[in-house]
Write a structure and sequence with these properties.
Elements lengths: L1 E6 L2 E6 L8 E3 L13 E9 L2 E8 L4 E7 L9 E4 L9 E10 L2 E9 L4 E8 L6 E2 L16 E10 L4 E9 L6 E7 L6 E2 L18 E10 L2 E9 L7 E8 L7 E2 L18 E10 L2 E10 L2 E10 L6
Antiparallel strand pairs: 1-2, 3-22, 4-5, 5-6, 6-7, 8-9, 9-10, 10-11, 12-13, 13-14, 14-15, 16-17, 17-18, 18-19, 20-21, 21-22
Length: 313
Amino acid sequence: MLAIIVACGYYVFLSGGPVTAGGWVKDPGSPVIGGSLGTTFDISVLHQDGLYRAWFSWRPKNAIAYVESSDGIIWSDPVIVLAPTDSGWELAVNRPTVIATANGYAMWYTGQTDERSAIGYATSPDGINWTRVTTTPVLVADRPWEKQAVMSPDVLYDIASGQYRMWYSGGDQYEPDAIGYATSSDGIHWVKDLANPVFTGSGAGKWDGLKVAAADVVPDAGGYVMFYIGYADAAAQHAQIGFARSADGINNWVRSTANPIIRPGHFLDWDHDAVYRPSVLHEAGRWVLWYNGRRGDTEQIGRAIHVGNDLGN
């Protein structure tokens, strides 16, 4: 049974039900990043040579920070690696996605003002020292459905086609509405798919019926699995995490019957108001998912595990 109250201006969801589904289990040591750092959110995680490397959004600094860990639970002290500028479009920078490249690392990130959001691009030889490739955004909101914001990029490089593939969120500045798709040969010049948005809310009355956003797309079983957040409430305060599958990563997405797989915690838990932006790794014999959870006006980053390679339907 689900009850809703309003406290201090926030929607609070009280539930005695399960906080995960589909074989997922929240790490009892969560949150793993947050505490005295203040609000930390929207993380991107890589696992290389036995080391977890992560870039996350650090709201008190309006910047992107870097941390590393041997186990994905205990992390080093954060170092700011990308700070805001006075360029006029990135007064705050956040929501990164980072991939390894032949020459180091590439990052696409969100630049924000109070009114608009756009996507920028930077590269690095080591993941710590970053250089912006352009001083202007590489993706902006210029379609009606995107309204005033594109944000939360997720990028894969497709070797067969020689293209970067981006899934991004578009719509309202506070919590976008749907997920779009674009391709690029150089990471700078992007072509948006004519079918955009390629993933939308599932309809009134569903847990993700109102909005979907913050995709993390992972190749799996000859196709693609998209982890994402969905909203059912008009205030866009109550986010949960689910996944869907597609053969080509663009069309005919099929949502999991287990959704939502990561749900807000019980009353007074650190993530009891909402769970956001998954960053997922498929490792040997398991899936690992980092996400930010909110309680009141503070977000922190936690972790969940799915043992076994098969996520189910």
